[in-house]
Specification:
Elements (H helix, E strand, L loop, with lengths): L1 H4 L10 H25 L9 H28 L11 E8 L15 E12 L2 E12 L10 E10 L20 E10 L12 H19 L5 H9 L7 H10 L9 H16 L6 H16 L4 H18 L6 H15 L7 H18 L12 H25 L1 E3 L2 H24 L6 H22 L4 E3 L4 H21 L3 H23 L4 E5 L7 E5 L5 E6 L20 H12 L4 E6 L5 H4 L2 H7 L1 E6 L8 H12 L3 E3 L6 E4 L2 E7 L14 E6 L2 E5 L5 H11 L8 E3 L11 H7 L3 E4 L12 H9 L4 E4 H4 L2 E6 L2 E4 L4
Parallel strand pairs: 3-5, 10-11, 11-12, 12-13, 17-18, 18-19, 19-20
Antiparallel strand pairs: 1-2, 1-4, 2-3, 4-5, 6-7, 8-9, 8-21, 9-10, 14-15, 15-16, 16-17, 21-22
């Protein structure tokens, strides 16, 4: 771990969460050594003082981390895949570890996440070999796991919540540095064993594929995706709505094979084996079977941690010696780090051990008298454990995923009970022969349906926040953790419980309170949604307008999967959290510039979370089932629909909209039919032309002549493409700020160098790029307008 910090990197190789995790693990190892020394030499003269023992243990652990981490950190920073250019075409040859279901081809088909093992990646002039790489493929034809394939797509870099904003300077395992996006799969005309893993690795892939096929055949179609994820850690077939529901409820870890799954499976196996094998040997046999299960599902960090702890407990029981939970956790962490020092940078590793720590703290928390009764003690203990896990993991989750979900506290309690019933039923449905499995398949289907309903219910509660700007809430959670620890170790006066209640109250009350404080100040924001467009406007009276909702997959057909998990839908990831965090409950106006998914894909999340009163749309006759689904959705919501034309005006409170394009019925070219407008608030003017090109700009100028569409803030057309934003348009609008909404490393090369040169020629005072500068917000009040602090 210390070696990671010394790896040659720009500033600090190991950033805050990983450094904290490394330090805590060193302390755990030191404490374990202290207890071992105390038990071995109780009261012996000349024994090493406890503090010296702790210090020595920490130093030794740091030296071990230095020796193990320095080579790994250096190798990771110099890995071949680290040199691949983001957005460049890439081809990967290897073996499919996950099957791809057969679905409709074309642009509308959802992407399926798969893993390709023992892969060779070719991009540019580089050829890199990896043990595994993720790919998001278009399911034009079904592929079986274990097949030799060629994946053609675009290389995408990983990092943080937004995959297009990689966090530089953090050593990561080469296999997690990126993925292949938008890929198509082609079969390789070679024997399956000629590429990919061989021996046990291939046997595991083929065995897992067979188990998945058997589970699909025995579960109801609507429950297969959740069942596959819950039992065999295969989330490739989860549809975006289900995935977002579990994320919004804060229980997505239940579909990622956590320690809960391993513990339940280990306990069940111990009981079953104990029917024939008495004594401690049953635990060893159960540990062997549990380890095989963990290997079968791909050995995620949380499952490996739980399996190692189960082994430690079984061995201690075999030797009739007590085993402390902290000792078992230290053993599991040490073995995992020795096997892969870079695992400390993995969010799953950090969340796994942080969650375990929170569970232990919550389980030891004292109860107030009214919760100490026999009837309430079980519920109180479950809530305390869930609170402890949330408080310890929330800062880490906020750092990596820009998300805090307080609803996960009650959701984990309720869903955990359902999972404890669903897992045995799923396992028996999978393994029982003949027709015996039918006795449990129905129970498994019911449990999975209840689990999905729980996720939907808690995801709909206003108890989650996502997106950038979670600082105050994250600090509040961290302060609550500190208060809880101090209360547990020192005062024991209920300070921790009071602090948790205060955090809950403040986080719930802050959005409406902030909305009240912001009255009288209008706001115009261009949000950072990657390669897409989204802008929100708050009137001085507090009503909200949304212009485009960013990319997403909300209107894909059921059963399809989105792109990179948890981050594909800008509506749920950015737009809705932004609005909710400022107290919005209703969207007065939702305007879609044109029917392309990078502009309206996130609108589904807006419909789900908020009431939408009016929808504006240019009415482009787009022959797309996704666009038809969008129109059906707004009709279901009861929102009115209008198609504005050039010259129309609309006033909402102190905001006036003047529509500049289209002049008549929109043509078949969606970009050229983009809804274009000028928004005026007081003396501030904002012009947005969607993805319209230079011909439309010329038409607008001719229509307005001799007037000019002057703007203080100009959103450049088509994400900074050279086909938009002519020099003539820049000279006519004379913007103070030009904002470009595009994604870092996008495959289109936006913003184009020609466009940037035009901005320079027009001497635009300030150019703001969401890929480099993040979201842009402008506040307008009686004193004028100004750029607000980053949201």
């Amino acid at each position: 771990m210390a070696g990671l910090a010394l790896a040659p990197v720009d500033a600090v190789a190991l950033q805050a969460p990983a450094a904290v995790a490394a330090g805590l693990l060193c302390v755990i190892v030191g404490q374990a050594a202290l207890r071992a020394a105390g038990r071995a030499r109780p009261g012996r003269a000349g024994a090493v003082p406890p503090r010296a023992t702790v210090g020595l243990a920490v130093v030794l652990a740091a030296l071990a981390g230095l020796l193990a981490g320095l080579p790994s950190g250096t190798a990771a920073l110099r890995a071949c895949v680290a040199t691949l250019e983001a957005g460049a075409p890439a081809v990967a040859a290897g073996t499919l570890a996950d099957g791809v279901p057969e679905r409709g081809a074309g642009r509308e088909a959802g992407l399926v996440r798969v893993s390709i093992r023992d892969v060779h990646i070719v991009s540019g002039a580089r050829i890199c070999r990896l043990g595994a790489v993720r790919a998001f493929v278009r399911p034009e034809a079904g592929r079986e796991a274990g097949a030799a394939v060629l994946a053609r797509g675009t290389w995408r870099t990983a990092g943080g919540t937004n995959p297009e904003a990689a966090r530089a300077g953090l050593p990561r395992p080469p296999g997690t540095l990126g993925w292949i996006g938008g890929a198509t799969l082609e079969p390789l005309a070679v024997p399956a064993h000629a590429v990919g893993p061989r021996g046990p690795g291939r046997w595991i892939i083929e065995w897992r594929a067979g188990l998945l096929a058997r589970l699909d055949a025995r579960l109801a179609p609507e429950h297969r995706a959740i069942g596959r994820a819950l039992l065999l850690a295969d989330r490739s077939t989860l549809d975006p709505a289900t995935r977002e529901a579990f994320v919004g409820a804060g229980i997505i870890h239940l579909l990622a094979i956590s320690g809960l799954h391993v513990g339940l499976i280990g306990a069940s196996l111990s009981w079953l084996i104990g029917l024939r094998v008495p004594g401690p040997r049953r635990l060893l046999y159960a540990a062997c079977c549990t380890s095989a299960y963990v290997c079968l599902i791909g050995a995620p960090p949380s499952a490996v941690r739980a399996a190692l702890m189960f082994w430690g407990w079984a061995l201690a029981f075999r030797r009739a010696r007590p085993a402390r939970l902290s000792d078992l956790a230290a053993l599991a962490a040490t073995l995992a780090i020795l096997a892969d020092p870079l695992i400390v940078t993995d969010p799953g590793f950090q969340l796994s051990f942080a969650g375990f720590t929170g569970v232990v703290l919550g389980g030891r928390a004292p109860f107030p008298p009214w919760l100490s009764s026999r009837h309430l003690r079980g519920i109180g203990r479950a809530l305390a454990v869930s609170c402890g896990a949330f408080l310890v993991t929330a800062p880490i989750a906020a750092f990596h995923f820009d998300r805090i979900v307080i609803a996960s506290i009650p959701a984990s309690v309720v869903a955990g009970g359902v999972v404890s019933l669903a897992l045995p039923a799923l396992a028996l449905t999978l393994i029982l022969p003949w027709g015996l499995w039918t006795l449990f398949a129905g129970a498994a289907d019911i449990a999975l349906a209840v689990l999905a309903a729980i996720a939907d219910f808690f995801a709909g509660l206003p108890l989650s926040w996502a997106g950038p700007g979670l600082g105050p809430r994250a600090w509040g959670v961290a302060a609550a953790v500190v208060a809880l620890v101090l209360d547990r170790t020192r005062a024991r006066r209920g300070l921790g419980v009071v602090s948790v209640g205060a955090v809950l109250a403040l986080t719930v009350a802050w959005p409406p309170l902030r909305a009240g404080l912001d009255r009288g100040t209008a706001l115009v924001c261009t949000l950072a949604v990657g390669q897409g467009d989204a802008a929100v406007v708050r009137t001085g009276a507090g009503r909200w307008l949304v212009f485009d909702a960013g990319p997403g997959a909300a209107f894909r057909t059921a059963g399809t999967a989105s792109g990179p998990p948890l981050i594909a839908d800008a509506g749920s990831r950015v737009v809705v959290p932004f609005l909710r965090g400022r107290g919005a409950r209703t969207v007065e106006l939702l305007a879609i510039s044109h029917p392309h998914l990078d502009h309206y894909g996130g609108a589904g999340a807006v419909f789900e979370a908020l009431r939408v009163r009016r929808v504006l749309d240019p009415g482009v006759p787009e022959p797309s089932s996704l666009y038809l689904a969008f129109l059906e959705r707004l009709q279901m919501e009861g929102a009115s629909w209008h198609a504005p034309r050039a010259g129309d005006r609309l006033r909402i409170d102190d905001v006036e909209l003047e529509f500049l394009w289209p002049e008549g019925p929109a043509g078949s070219d969606a970009n050229e039919g983009s809804l274009s407008f000028r928004l005026t608030v007081g003396d501030f003017r904002y012009v947005n032309t969607g993805d319209a090109g230079v011909e439309v700009e010329r038409e607008i100028l001719e229509h307005l002549a001799p007037l000019r569409p002057e703007a203080d803030l100009l959103k450049l057309g088509h994400h900074g493409s050279r086909t938009s934003t002519s020099l003539e348009w820049l000279e006519a609008t004379q913007p103070e700020i030009a904002v470009i909404s595009s994604g870092t490393g996008n495959r289109y090369g936006h913003p184009h160098a020609v466009t940037l040169a035009r901005l320079d020629s027009a001497r635009v005072p300030q150019v703001w790029r969401t890929d480099l500068d993040g979201p842009l917000c402008v506040e307008i009040d009686a004193r004028g307008w100004r750029i607000a602090d980053a949201p």
